[in-house]
Amino acid sequence: MSNSKRREVKTELSLLGKYNDIISDVHKQVLEEEISQLPPIKEGEVSVHGVYAYDTGEYIEVKVYIRNGLNKNINFTEVPFLLLNNKNEVLARETFNLEKVGLVPAGGARPYKLNFHKDNLLVDKIPIDDWKITFDKEVQATTYVSVEYENLPENMPEESKKVYYEFLNNLSPLKQGDITLDRFSIGINKEGNILVTIVIRNGSNKHISVEEIPVTVTDKNNILMASNVFKMDNLSILPCKARICHFVFPMDVKLDRDMDLSDWKVYFEAANKNNTENIYK
Predict the structure, then answer these.
(1) What DSSP character marks residue 37?
(2) How far is CA 117 from CA 10, 62, 93, 133, 186, in A?
(3) Is residue 267 located within the same domain as residue 171?
(4) Which of 3, 208, 245, 252 has the greatest number of C-beta atoms within 10 Å?
(5) What tens digit of pLDDT does each residue of 81-126 get?
(6) Do 157 and 123 have their domain in common?
């Protein structure tokens, strides 16, 4: 679709959850008024627009709105910005980590402040009425997806569900299309067996089947404790879902009261028992 045929996107104020709870309604009205005065954006665009640039003495504080004209949620990592004058001459350039901007929904306008360090200015000062901010190059927004557990046991205590969901929500953001395996816990039961619990996340748009999972456990000194390839009987995980899996290594580990398992590591590959220390460094 040509640029001239793309429709304009109406963007609305989008705040991170914690700010949405603490910002007053009056402040939200001010932000919404600022958004209403921004130039329109079109479908498929990700836009940044500056509201003010203020010299704090230590840096140049620039308030911006990052607007999402895509039809999906987006997130950012390292993004380069330029400050330009009306002749498109560069006044300043700096790259910012925008992870704290958070997930910007489709049609969302997220307020944020960028602090340009004085060392990155190419002029003595930023003119009050002659500046604008742009991406240094076409921004590559990363799409992330949210997942929920499927097939949790009906008799699982609510407190256990809460712990599992806290773990899920604190994992690193899941990119669209990615499939991840993360260790939830390692333990040793009274029989001396090593117990490993993991969480599998499916960030793709189709269900996946898992036939087998290799799991290796080492201690904090990289000494091999257990390794096995577990048959999963074609475990199926739906799109944007997560599954909890438990593994038992029949062992005879003598559980020392002072044994700390927090430094033990889990790898999702079969161990080379003849060269374990070199493999897992």
Answers:
(1) T
(2) 33, 11, 9, 15, 45
(3) yes
(4) 245
(5) 999 999 999 999 999 999 889 889 899 999 999 999 999 999 999 9
(6) no
Euclidean distance between CA atoms 176 and 142, whole angstroms = 8
Give me the number of domains the chain comprises. Answer: 2
Report pLDDT digits (tens) over 210-227.
999 999 999 988 999 999
Residues in the chain: 281
> Does residue 135 share a domain with residue 11?
yes
- Look up tokens 């990700």; give the residue: 46
Do 157 and 82 share a structural domain? no
Q: How far apart are the first and last CA of the chain?
A: 50
What residues pair up with 216 in beta bridges, in sequence order? 227, 267
**Short-list 232, 261, 262, 227, CA closest to 245:** 232
pLDDT score, position 103: 86
Q: What does the pLDDT look like over 3-40, one tens digit per residue?
A: 556 789 999 999 987 788 889 999 999 999 999 999 99
How would you classify residue 233: left for phi > 0, otherwise alpha for psi between -120 and 50, otherwise beta?
left
Please state the φ and ψ torsions of residue 19, each to the nearest 5 degrees: -75, -35
Shared-domain flag, residues 38 and 99: yes
pLDDT at 18: 75
Residue 245 structural domain: 145-279
Phi, psi for residue 168 in degrees, rounded to 5: -60, -45
- What is the spatial distance between Cα 7 and Cα 68, in angstroms, rounded to a whole number? 14
Query: Could you write out the DSSP letters of every residue in 132-157?
Result: EEEESS---PBPEE--EE-S--TT--
The whole-angstrom separation of Cα 78 and Cα 97 is: 4
Sequence letter at residue 1: M
**Residue 133 shares a structural domain with residue 167:** no
Tell whether 234 and 245 lie within a shared domain.
Answer: yes
**Could you give the angle at the alpha carbon of 30 between the alpha carbons of 26 and 32, nearest 5°?**
110
Question: Is the domain of 164 the same as that of 265?
Answer: yes
